[in-house]
Amino acid sequence: MPILEFEKTKTLLKKYNIPFCETEIFNSSVKALNFAKQIGFPVVLKIHSSKIFHKSEVKGVKLGINNEQEFVKAWNELAKIKDIEGILVQKTAEGVEMVIGMKKDDQFGPVLMFGLGGIFVEVLKDVAFRVGPLNTSEALAMIKEIKGFKLLQGYRNQKGVNINQLAKTIVQVSHLAEKEKNILAIDFNPVIGNPKSVLVVDFRIVV
Q1: What is the pTM of this model?
Q2: Domains in the chain, please, with CATH?
Q3: Element (H, E) at 204
Q4: Which residue intervals of the chain are DSSP H helices?
Q5: pLDDT for res 119
Q6: Using N-to-C axis directions, what is the helix angle for 163-179 and 136-145, rounded to 10°?
Q7: If residue 185 lies in a helix (H) or strand (E), which one and from where to where?
Q8: How far apart are CA 5 and CA 43, in angstroms?
Q9: CA separation for the pair 168, 176 (Å, rounded)
Q10: C-beta neighbour count of 36 within 10 angstroms
Q11: Most buried one in 4, 129, 156, 158, CB count within 10 A?
Q12: Can you tell me whether residue 78 is helix, strand or coil?
């Protein structure tokens, strides 16, 4: 199943008002560095490839790049990876890691998934599912259903997430899945949330 091209994916996110981290793709290290300086350090570098589904497995993600020297070193290391079509430059986002996904079911249509990111979704499987389309109340219920909801509210020294913005984002993903009939799956992982914003950081759409 092919992955939707980067620019077409960004166009869809903008069309459905799904907030995402400022990101551009480059094949030129000079242009990429200029963009990094424009958005401000720290930045993240990630490989872009339709053939590589899990960037981390090929060491295709470089986090916490704080200056020009670190940028050049990270770029050169990523550029050696086979089958890449470019390198993404992205502003660093801070907050709680979450995941929003969707798969088209032959019987039910779009099935939405939400959960905490990282180890919580991979090991603990702390996720909730709903058949789309969703309204705001249904999205809020979905969010509150996961065991890690307390983390989203803020726990001890960790800041919480803007729950209303998160629910709105899930609803917009639901609308996208319902209206764009050619889309088979959506994988937004991670989605980074904090008290001010919710941003899709890594986005993959399968058509």
Answers
A1: 0.91
A2: 22-91 (3.30.1490.20), 96-206 (3.30.470.20)
A3: strand 203-206
A4: 6-15, 29-39, 68-79, 119-122, 136-145, 149-153, 163-179
A5: 67
A6: 120
A7: strand 185-193
A8: 22
A9: 12
A10: 24
A11: 4
A12: helix
Per-residue pLDDT of the chain (207 residues; tens, 9 = 90+): 688 989 999 999 999 999 999 999 999 999 999 999 999 999 999 998 877 777 877 899 999 999 999 999 999 999 999 989 999 999 999 999 999 999 999 999 999 999 998 766 776 788 999 999 999 999 999 999 999 999 999 988 889 999 999 999 999 999 999 999 999 999 999 999 999 999 999 999 999
- For 179, residues 6+ apart whose C-beta sits below 8 A from its C-beta are none
User: How far apart are the C-alpha atoms of 188 and 207, rounded to whole Å?
Assistant: 15
Rounded CA separation 97/74 (Å)? 23
Q: Which of these, 68, 46, 71, lies nearest to 56 by C-alpha position?
A: 46
First to last CA, the chain: 7
Amino acid at 43: V
- Which helix (H) or strand (E) covers residue 94, if one does? none
φ and ψ at 106, to 5 degrees?
-60, -35
Which among 175, 171, 166 is positioned nearest to 198, based on CA atoms? 166
